[in-house]
Amino acid sequence: MSLGDYEEILTEIASEWGVAEEEIKLAEQIHHKVVLPAIKELRYAGRRLADALGAIARGAPATEVKDLIADARFRCHCARHDVIDASLLKIAID
Question: Number of folded domains in the chain?
């Protein structure tokens, strides 16, 4: 399979990543500090995307590539959840 075969899900991930980034920036303005767990989740997502690209390049089975890409998308969702958790904690403390 080629990179083009994954265009739809990669576009979804790019969108999810962008939303997570915006939410992280907003949370940083609220907290006046970095929401590190959310940033780490985006880092993990990036690692999974790099692994997926490597798998595509070496001709790995489609299931391996799909699993890596699915995990990247999941990590973007986790980042958003970490932002929500941090924001709710801030509200509860204040």
Answer: 1
